[in-house]
Amino acid sequence: MIRIENLSFSFPESEKFALKNISLDIAKGEFVALLGPNGSGKTTLALCLCVIIPHFFHGNFQGKIFINNKDTADCQIHELAKETGVLLQDYESQLFLPTIEEEIRFQLENFGFPADEKIAELEQDAHFSHLLKKKVFSLSEGEKQKALMVAILSVDSDILILDEPTSQLDKKEREQLLETLKELNKQGKTIILITHDTCFAKHCSRFITLNSGKIVRDEESLETIDSLGVEPIDYKWGTKNNRERRIQNTKISIKDLSYEDVLNKVNLDIKNNEFVLICGANGSGKTTLVKHIIKLLKIQKGEIEIDGKALKKYSQRDIASRIGFVFQNPNHQIFRNSIEEELEFTLKLLGKENKEKEINEMLSFFDLEKYRNKSPQALSTGEKYRVAMASSLVSNPDIIILDEPLTHLDFKAKQHFIKYLAELKEKGKTIIVISHHPDYYQSLVDRIFIIKNKEVIEQ
Ligand SMILES: Nc1ncnc2c1ncn2[C@@H]1O[C@H](COP(=O)(O)OP(=O)(O)OP(=O)(O)O)[C@@H](O)[C@H]1O
Ligand SMILES: [Mg+2]
Questions:
Q1: Closest residue (by CA) to atom 25 of ligand 1?
Q2: How far, in Å, are 127, 277, 427, 432, 457 from residue 272 at the CA level?
Q3: φ, ψ of residue 228 in degrees (nearest 5)
Q4: HSE-CB of 334 using CA atoms within 13 angstroms
Q5: Ligand 2 centroid to 89 CA: how many Å?
Q6: Dist. CA 413 → ligand 1 center (Å)
Q7: From ligand 1's centre to the CA of 381, what distance in Å?
Q8: Measured distance CA(349)–CA(391) in Å, rounded
């Protein structure tokens, strides 16, 4: 069904080949996991398969790709779109229309399928109908990813290429997607799944691992190797943090916070030097809650205090110097021309001196030294996350808020970052993490809060 012959590709202005001499046959009905560390070429390969490379991203492209015996060099992106459904790692770039309903209609009508029936079916679906008419920009990241998946699957393509399809999904949605994919595979669909989530990948029947743009393993059973960025199956991330909590001062106090129909009279006290995890289903209001703390959303009702002082008395700059925030989508926070400039910008904004030392430390810690002068846009997603983290933490903030920070990082980078969080905690920082993967933070967490039915409850 898919044949790749001696494929190599390098992005413009990059001497390094992102893919090197890839040759691969994938038969109809295979369920393939594509694994490998950050920057190994997984997404680049996916982009070649759906001809976004070389039609949209130009570069040095060598070799051939055949899909259903058709040479893709002769195909435009839309010609392949019917037989190949693609969910990009940067799913947001695939959403064009104001609402999900329009997006699904467009997908179907574009290929000559009637859309009314599908829309009527989704209107009856209690877990989806509320998303149909909402403006896309108002959806949570998980809702966007889930909704786009529904739009893609509605086309019934023979081949599915899914790049990190669970990165923003809660546990229930992940389980549901897995069941859907297993069923589609049983019906004969060919699926290529790119993921850092081994719990998900282990259900595939073939495991291809890339490293530095080359295929280094191609096997029928999943053998995980740390150095290849693949998490061991059922890896235990650490034992529960049983340290006795001292009575500490309140660092952040949230009183009766309400927002639209998302949060209702939320009360939450976060103590100094606490590590707090905020969990809750897709769309439950986790990001909305923390956006209030960093003054990205205006308080409609209720109060927030930091160190006993009302939030409104802090300037935006005060907040930026006290709180390091890493967005759920790194594209929302990296704008500069180079990675070095990205970090310099944070420090300059906060009027900090001695930039060189801090920047060097951060680049070396996040293994970004080699990309110092590169544009953050010319990086893999996992690498972009590392830039976002480095630029938020370089100013040594007192409070750290991370919104689903780890799902795009490979196993080694995840472990490395967890260790770093432990060091930050040791140094007395207050840390708030939003995540659908509480297991990663077992050894660090003091308290877990769950947002459910617009309220926050302690677990
Ligand atoms: N638009 C781009 N321009 C230039 N170089 C790029 C671009 N996108 C990715 N790269 C580089 O190509 C290489 C492969 O990146 P790719 O995105 O394919 O990695 P990946 O395996 O998908 O990583 P991740 O696990 O982080 O998603 C990396 O070295 C990356 O820095
Ligand atoms: Mg990728």
A1: 38
A2: 38, 14, 11, 11, 19
A3: -95, 15
A4: 29
A5: 6
A6: 15
A7: 7
A8: 12
Q: What is the pLDDT of residues 310-324, one digit of tens each?
A: 999 999 999 999 999
H-helix segments, 271-400: 286-293, 316-322, 339-349, 355-365, 381-393
Q: What is the pLDDT of residues 331-370, one digit of tens each?
A: 889 999 999 999 999 998 888 877 899 999 999 999 999 9
Strand, helix or coil for residue 10: strand
**DSSP one-letter string for 95-140:** --SSBHHHHHHHHHHHTT---HHHHHHHHT-TTTHHHHTSBGGGS-
Q: What is the pTM of this model?
A: 0.94
Q: Centre a 10 Å sphere on the Cβ of residue 317 and count the other Cβ atoms it contains.
A: 11
Q: Give, as residue ranges, everything with CB less than 5 Å from ion ligand 2.
A: 42-43, 89, 380-381
What residues form DSSP beta bridges with 67? 2, 70
CA of 214 to the centre of ligand 2 (A): 14
**pLDDT value for 206:** 97
The confidence score (pLDDT) of residue 165 equals 98
Percent of the chain's residues with pLDDT above 90? 85
3-state secondary structure (DSSP) of residue 142: helix
Per-residue pLDDT tens digits for 114-137: 899 999 999 999 889 999 999 999
The residue-averaged pLDDT of 289-309 equals 97
**Residue closest by Cα to atom 11 of ligand 1:** 379
* Residue for token pair 């070649």: 48
**Cβ(380) – ligand 1 distance below 6 Å:** yes
